[in-house]
Amino acid sequence: YTVPKGEQGSWVSLTTDPKGRLIAGDQEGALYRITLNGTDEPSVEELKTRVKQAHGLLYANNALYFCRNGGESGLYRLRDTDGDDQFDEEVLLRKIDGGGEHGPHAVVLGADGKSLLVVGGNHTKLPNPENSLVPKLWGEDFIIPRMWDANGHAANIFAPGGWIARTDFDGKEWTLVSAGYRNQYDIALNPQGQIFTYDSDMEWDIGAPWYRPTRAIEAMHGSEFGWRSGSNNTPDYFVDSLPPTLNIGPGSPTGVTFGTGARFPAKYQQALYIADWTYGTMYVLHLKPKGASWVAEKEEFVAGKPLPLTDLVIHPGDGAMYFLIGGRKTQS
After folding, report:
1. Do 92 and 76 form a contact (C-beta atoms < 8 A)?
2. Which of 184, 174, 165 shows the shortest CA–CA distance to 227?
3. Which of 68, 102, 136, 325 could be stapled to 123 by a disulfide with Cβ–Cβ 3.0 to 4.6 Å?
């Protein structure tokens, strides 16, 4: 499907509903529901919701969970209460203070099937979580004075940086699970329930001693990955930081998913897929256990020039992968 940009915008988020339809979100606008019609072009309809600007979408617990980025950012729950196949109830479960491309991002079903995992980039304040698995000790007491970014990016934004939090279906009680990221857009769970993400680099720091490439990470419970603004990123060898699963290189991370449920060869069902917007490449990471965590081998899976990848899902019905391109008002 080629999105008419002037009417339907530029799409950045994707999920499936219980009827096997896809729901996509325009970065700056509405939701669109896509009915797949085999080999024919799908049918696409705009959903008339008040809440817009979805960076994260998840259908679970008979509701559409919607992570809004912009306007009144936060985690919303949308329901169809009168059975007319439209969302008539829209509830803000918790306001999240953040916006823009480093604001609130994905919402994903937790490993227990009864909770939500919510993602925020490093320009997103913690949503006042009632609990924390991460020790809240973020004093930036460095010996060498920090050099802020020369362009002022993320100036005066301090640790913990990007975060992952867990909450219940009603958004009542929140727990900080992992932190210390620059700008991780999405997360995915493997069949064992472990959380993985793909974190951004600071591209203007390439060549500097504190540069960290984009990297695939296992976000262990209670983990802190050492993002600090400017020159003070915490190296992997510090005792209060953790290493990545695999360094990828320069890029702009967007959607991630596991191949669980895909009608792919077994090796690819067990792998992690990560999308890079800048270089138009989707990688598949083949994971192998090592000690308490994993190592990975990278393989190019899909690439194009241009191919500004945004989000991807494995469809539970047909077992195919569906992915979007778009973002920053580009053609979807």
Report:
1. yes
2. 184
3. 102
Q: Report the distance separating Cα 274 and Cα 311, nearest Å.
A: 9
Query: DSSP for 150-216?
Result: TT-TTTT--TT-EEEEEEETT---EEEEEEEES----EEE-TT--EEEEE---GGGTTSTT---EEE
CA–CA separation, 90 vs 268, rounded Å?
37
For the chain, give the percent of residues with pLDDT over 70: 100
CA distances from 311 to 13, 24, 99, 172 (A): 5, 9, 18, 27
C-alpha span between 127 and 160 (Å, rounded): 12
Alpha carbons within 13 A on the beta-carbon side of 86 = 8
Peptide bond into 213 cis (omega under 30): no
- Is the previous residue joined to 306 through a cis bond, with omega within 30 degrees of 0? yes
Per-residue burial over 14-53, b = 16 or more CB atoms within 10 Å of its CB, e = otherwise = bbbeeeebbbbbbbebbbbbbebeeeeeeebeebebebbb
Give the pairing of strands 174-181 and 223-224.
Answer: parallel
| Token pair for 312 | 């991807």
Which alpha helices (DSSP H) does the chain contain, by range?
5-8, 266-269
* CB neighbour class for 55 (10 Å; exposed up to 12, middle 13-18, buried from 19): buried
- List 132's β-bridge partners, or say none: 176
For tokens 């049918």, the residue is: 43
Query: Which of these, 321, 285, 323, 281, lies nearest to 303 by C-alpha position?
Result: 281
